[in-house]
Amino acid sequence: MSKPSLKQYSAELAELENAPACEIQILPLQAIAIVSHIQLAIRHPSLADNSALTKIARDVAIELQSLFNSESATYKVLELGWHEQHDILVEGTDFND
Fold it and tell me: Is residue 83 part of a domain?
């Protein structure tokens, strides 16, 4: 695979700012996976919290989270992922409770 042109990539990103929205179909479990992975990724210490792409990713994740009833346990667990004080070590966690 040849290296992509970063100049061309930058130009294509600029074009996408005015592109129409696209529709996708995903399963609810896929939405949960995407939200939780975005939450994990935006916590990475080397990622600039205020970058435009981080904001877009956060907005997409929040939109996906809104697909679930706000009173459901699924929504509430995803909501915890936005609040660092609720972070837990997954290893050894019993999800049956």
Answer: yes
* Residue 17 domain-assigned (yes or no): no
Phi, psi of 40 (to 5 degrees): -65, -45
Summarize pLDDT for 9-68 with one digit per residue, the tens.
999 999 998 999 999 999 999 999 999 999 999 888 777 667 888 899 999 999 999 999
As a whole number of angstroms, the longest Cα–Cα distance in the chain is 50
Q: Is residue 59 part of a domain?
A: yes
pTM score, two decimals?
A: 0.77
Rounded Cα gap, residues 63 and 58, in angstroms: 9
Specify if 1 maps to a domain: no
